[in-house]
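If you are new to this repository, start here. Below is one unmodified record pulled from the training split, so you can see the exact layout before writing a loader.
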Amino acid sequence: MRFSASIAVYIALLSTTVAADANPSAPLSSQQILPNNFKPPQVFRNTNLLRNINLEKGYVRETVNVVIENIDSKPQSSYYIPFGADVIDKVGGLEARDKKNPGPFFKTEVVEYDPYSPTQFFRINLPQSLAPKSQLTLSNSYHILSALSPLPSKIAQQDKQYLLYTFSTYTPSAYPTLKQKTKLKLPTTDIPDVNGGNPDRQGSTFTYGPYNDLIPPGALEPASVRYEFTKPIIHATLLERDLEISHWGGNLATEERYWLTNQGAQLKENFNRVQWAATQYYSPPTSALRSLNVPLKVGSLNPYFTDDIGNVSTSRFRSNKKEANLELKPRYPVFGGWNYSFRIGWDADLRHFLRTLKTPEGGHVLKVPFLEGPKMGEGISYGKVEVRVILPEGARNVRFETEVPLVAVEETVHKTFLDTVGRTTLKLTAMNVVDETRDKPLIVTYDYPFSAAFRKPITIFLGVMAVFITAWGIGRLDVSIGKQT
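And here is the target side for that same chain:
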């Protein structure tokens, strides 16, 4: 089975708002397997469609606003969006809602009918069936990772970097479209190559269409643009984020571990350190990653920055009553194809994130950002994000809620110093995440009985008493070798 079919299981919930039930460790697979002769029923028609493609960051962001009409004789509630098999495993954050009546996002899921098919589908489940001849303005948004290719793929150390993006001027659709238009927003006016579509240009924006002729389902019109983007294309293949709660210390300890790579153009010659040092005085545009800026919550303290070698001293932490900011500078510039792994951490006052409920069970509500991390103008994408919320020992009845689409939820036990049974840990996994997810809340509720709060002090007391009793017992032993009188 091809890779895209196997990875589809992991992105089956990329557009589902998740709220845990009583057993958050239950699997969250919602992938629907359909017959191999499946075709989306032709029950809808796109009467008017506007597609916006934004290339201002190191990944592709698309928003599609479409007026759909039910042309069937029965109410319909399932709308399908097609993606190529080579693209669907790169799609993340698919959200759909009624544009005219903003409210909760609609439920979406991946459907698969043939693992070898060149086309796969997302299905949008409308909250209410659309009556015959009725219309709905649907707004879909998503991002696509690793869709930009540097061209040329190798450049000199101080050369400009150009990216190639290939797409269809016709919006891929499972239904006929009466009228549509595509707008492409670029970060620069330095655009040497534009192929296909004959667009209208206004500065850095290209408009394809409007196309007023009936466009059949699945129709494609290839086009491409090559544009200047002399910035790093930052991608984290993996981010591990730990949030450790201490009731006794009143502290929220955060640690994030990154495996970064630059997906930009590689160097065609060896790295020239002298040339790089000379550019530090006037900071010209470069495709290398120089530094990372990490905004933190106000009141954060005790930050640290380490990598595989040890502590990295090239960091700066600024904190006041209005902001807290951690500036990181890697040990070396990260050019295209280079990797850099590191970890950062900091502490925060737990009172700003935790609320105690007046319940007999000792209920608590924790509200923290699902994702923090660097905030860069060129954007950052994450292939996989693992968030662990390490609760106090004795916490139970754990529930959570987040708007971030998840692919896996697991409840485990984490043991540290002086623990007896270990700490309840909630592990959440998301795929194909971007920096726009920053600060989306993660709400965790749990019960922490009054008796559980004294588990550790009692453990320490009993341990100390055991040491004294053991020492006293040993002291009472007669270990002399002389003859007793």
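Two things worth knowing about this chain: The longest strand covers residues 234-246. The chain is about 5% helix and 45% strand.
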